[in-house]
Amino acid sequence: NAGVMQNPRHLVRRRGQEARLRxxxxxxxxxxxxxxxxxxxxxxxxxxxxxxxxxxxxxxxxERFSAEFPKEGPSILRIxxxxxxxxxxxxxASSPESSDNSPLHFGNGTRLTVT
Amino acid sequence: xxLLEQSPQFLSIQEGxxxxxxxxxxxxxxxxxxxRQEPGEGPVLLVTVVTGGEVKKLKRLTFQFGDARxxxxxxxxxxQPGDTGLYLCAEASxxxxxxxxxxxxxxxxx
Lengths: 115, 110
Description:
The complex is a heterodimer.
Chain A: E1 5-7, E2 10-13, E3 19-24, E4 31-37, E5 43-50, E6 53-56, E7 65-68, E8 75-79, E9 88-95, E10 105-106, E11 110-114
Chain B: E1 4-7, E2 10-14, E3 19-25, E4 32-37, E5 44-49, E6 55-58, E7 61-65, E8 71-76, E9 85-92, E10 98-100, E11 104-109
Parallel strand pairs in B: 2-11
Antiparallel strand pairs in B: 1-3, 3-8, 4-5, 4-9, 6-7, 7-8, 9-10, 9-11
């Protein structure tokens, strides 16, 4: 029973390029959450998606960031025209339902480095 | 907006020592989760506490939820190097979204 799969594990981009981060949730999970983490800090919520719908994007920067979770395929977090401040670890988590009693299962993250 | 404060931010101890880390909120928690994160990996859920005054044990880890549900603590007895990691508390909203504290980085030296 595969866990949450994120790829790539490490991604290096030059300033101005685009970064695409992928997340395949656990089998049977239709709720996906993206988080960003700076070194030795907690995780900051970015966006919550269900299949084909963005439910809560209150943590997403207004520009350059977008997320999708299509009917088929993984969830994608897309960062356009990356800047050095985008360097961080990005984690995806999934759950079978949206409630405070349903624990989130996290992937091992994508570490983005912008040079 | 719920604010979760964790203390201490960083803790370095010798193997065999005991330690306690704290998580405090500006308002009442609906429920609280504790996670442990090792370098290069995602957070892993340790426990969920729901009821004020609740105490849960997980081997050498003891979790307490304050009576007023505004604070929680994690106590580790006889720490081992394998306990090294980032300990995070988080509150879940009714949509499942988690709000995390900034974490306590624990280093246990052999």
